[in-house]
Write a structure and sequence with these properties.
By secondary structure, the protein is of the alpha/beta class. The strands form 3 sheets. A 7-stranded mixed sheet has the order 1-2-9-6-5-3-4, with helices on both faces. Strand 1 and strand 2 form a beta hairpin. Helix 3 crosses helix 4 and helix 9 packs across helix 10. The longest helix has 21 residues.
Length: 352
């Protein structure tokens, strides 16, 4: 097992390994919690809830469970309200605990609820997907969606701990695994870990843990410098401006990791047209993207005005501009403010 410490005003540890979930849940300090709410989704409930329940019973805490449907539709005001009322019904206090057992949707919903119920209670992230292990469970961003756009309501709420048990990834479908690789590819382009397409397409058990550790450490370093995304942390949005537009336009039917991969492809084209991308990098990056997904043209038949309107609803937009993460080369990206007019002028070209 590897232990990665995240050093912020409120420090916490990320535990990474195969088969560590039970041992960690038995030994992590729950502080003064006497009640635990396990938030999960219907699929993960069937796979792992009984195992988690058996462990928690040994802790002599009172255990409750709140299961939501899978998918982005559960990151809603309706589901948030249901979870709040469930906590209130069972008389949870500020000293009690939420455990997020699931992918990014469950982690975001549980974390946002933990950050706002009674003005804040503790929670532990137990990610069950590759995407949530390498990205969404780390860094303290939580939130829910509105009709207008993704993650428009949220708080920064750091967990008490993160337990990344790589064994849980064995039950993922190939498609869901590749979806998670979308965020891994993002980290490779941002920080240059030296991973090649073949490393990411079919990793061995040891290689997979190395990939997860690399991604977590990349995010840890950025978050420690810029917890609340006032500067350098914005780099982690590589591909996400277009990804969120894709998710909104297609009513969240496109998985997040695949949307990120397509979003990076569009940013690659923007970087090229703005003379930022270095010669010889385009082919290498396009090849790397295919380690996750080879459908890179979701927006090609969407009117540019529709794309631009979706981008305008992004929470990162302000005063007629949005900050994009442009690519110079693998391992070197930079922030670039662009007006909606300038971006609108580029859209017909990059969609060809």
């Amino acid at each position: 097992m590897k232990q990665i410490s995240v050093n912020l005003n409120k420090n916490y540890d990320i535990f990474l390994g195969a088969g560590i979930l039970a041992e960690r849940l038995l030994n992590i300090d729950f502080l003064e919690a006497t009640k635990v709410m396990v938030v999960t989704d219907a699929t993960v409930y069937k796979l792992y809830y009984e195992e988690v329940l058996a462990v928690l019973k040994k802790r002599k805490v009172k255990v409750f469970c709140h299961a939501v449907k899978g998918g982005e539709q559960s990151k809603s005001l309706k589901d948030y309200s249901r979870l709040l009322n469930t906590l209130a019904k069972h008389e949870f206090t500020r000293k009690d605990l939420i455990i997020a057992l699931g992918g990014g949707v469950v982690g975001d919903l549980a974390g946002f609820t933990a950050g706002t119920f009674l003005r804040g209670i503790n929670y532990i992230q137990c990610p069950t997907t590759l995407l949530s292990m390498v990205d969404s469970s780390v860094g303290g961003k939580t939130g829910i969606n509105l009709t207008k756009g993704k993650n428009l309501v949220g708080v920064f709420k750091q967990p008490l701990a993160v337990i990344a048990d790589a064994r849980l990834l064995s039950t993922l479908t190939q498609s869901e695994f590749k979806n998670g690789m979308g965020e891994v590819v993002k980290y490779e382009i941002l920080f240059g870990g030296g991973f090649k397409r073949e490393d990411l397409e079919n990793p061995s058990e040891n290689m997979l843990e190395e990939i997860i550790e690399f991604s977590i450490n990349c995010k840890k370093k950025i978050v420690e410098k810029d917890e609340h995304e006032s500067g350098e942390r914005k780099l982690l949005n590589l591909g996400h401006t277009f990804a969120h537009a894709i998710e909104k336009i297609f009513n969240f039917s496109v998985p997040h990791g695949f949307a990120v991969i397509a979003g990076i492809k569009y940013i690659l084209e923007v970087s090229k047209r703005l003379n930022v991308l270095k010669s010889g990098e385009e082919e290498k990056i396009l090849n790397l993207l295919k380690a996750s997904h080879d459908k890179l043209d979701y927006l090609n038949s969407t009117p540019p005005k529709t794309v631009l309107n979706a981008i305008k609803s992004d929470k990162k937009s302000a005063r007629g501009k949005i900050t994009l993460v442009l690519i110079e080369e693998i391992g070197k990206c930079k922030l670039h403010d662009i007006s909606f007019k300038e971006l609108g002028d580029l859209l017909p070209w990059i969609q060809k």
